[in-house]
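Hi R.,

Here's the chain you asked about this morning:
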Amino acid sequence: MDAHTILILFLGFFSLKLIWESLLILLNIKSSREHAAKIPAFVKKIIDKESYTRSVEYSITKGKFSLLNDVAGAFFLVLLILSGFLGIVDDYLYSLNIGTYLHGLLFLFSIGLVFAFFSLPFSLYAQFVIEERFGFNKMTPALFFFDRLKALIITVIIAAPLYFVLLWLLEVTGSWWWLLAFGFYTLFQLFITIIYPAVIAPLFNKFTAIEDGSLKQKINALLKKVHYKSKGIFIMDGSKRSKHSNAYFTGIGKTKRIVLFDTLINILKENEITAVLAHEIGHQKKKHIIKMLILSILSVLLAFFLIQLLLNYHPLYTAFGFSRVSLHAVLILLSLCSGAFTFMLTPLFSLLSRKHEYTADKYAAQQVTKGAMHLKNALLSLSKDNLSNLTPHPLYSFYYYSHPTLAERVKALEKL
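And the predicted structure, written out as tokens:
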């Protein structure tokens, strides 16, 4: 296949993806508008007309912004590719004669910065216009930019040694380098997962051990009942950045932590919080985390296999403006372009994730007294507080949603 055919094929699939996903967003906006006049029956008892209207407006506003963001991002990427920008940057760095390692690293970070600067106005608008308008934003401009600076520094610290090792393996281990690289990358990811709760997360948020009291007692009783060991229960100052609320488990092995947003504590009752945590524990007890981890590892293995196949395929480089083969060029091309060929897999992953959510809901209902009722009430309260979309279009939720819609989850919990 020559370079021209490769480029045409990419542009065809990329356009198909953009058109399909734009259509889904438009359908979702249309669905919100069609249901704006009438509050869905399953939330009538907990949401008033004013709150429902705000949730509809929030869903429509986010949908319009998402459409603009996606279209602008797509045109920007195509512009960079057709203008030969990627190859121009690569050629310039090559002319500096700074060595293969530094050349590749600077190229990856340069392209990453280009996209970061492009997305910055969109991020600012989302945070300080949309989130501010609907009362969610708690972040200051100073904190916004400081977060991004810290994220950039952390990315450099993590990515630099990773890239150096991958390139070194390519140079010294021959045609089977990609298997060794896959093994190293997998171990590296595991290492980051282990250190994240104690080293990386505290750089952005403050984590305070939950105080003694009835909530802690109920959570500990649940952990004891289901034989779940945790390093601790922590409250995170999520309200420093947003009024949105959440809870999650982080870490593996001895570093496992339960994290509750302080905003969640203020919204839910203690039994509801316990039911939410039982749901999260259900994911681990039902091996959902392991299954998704295996799926992720297999995806990484496939990615490294593709890198090996494409590494010396000259027409690919020519199609996207490069004048020489390199590991960093393949990495950036897979990062920027693979979505055009894999977007049809999105609903399959969404379907699997939704199946896991139903199973975890059932687990919570079994492990907590009146668990189905408490979890249902928690979901309704969180949905109201977060202005969730209560009437998404079926095609949109089928394609994108990793969780069942609120109506679907409530119906399933009521049966339990």
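The beta strands are 207-209, 233-236, 247-250, 257-261.

Let me know if you need anything else.
M.
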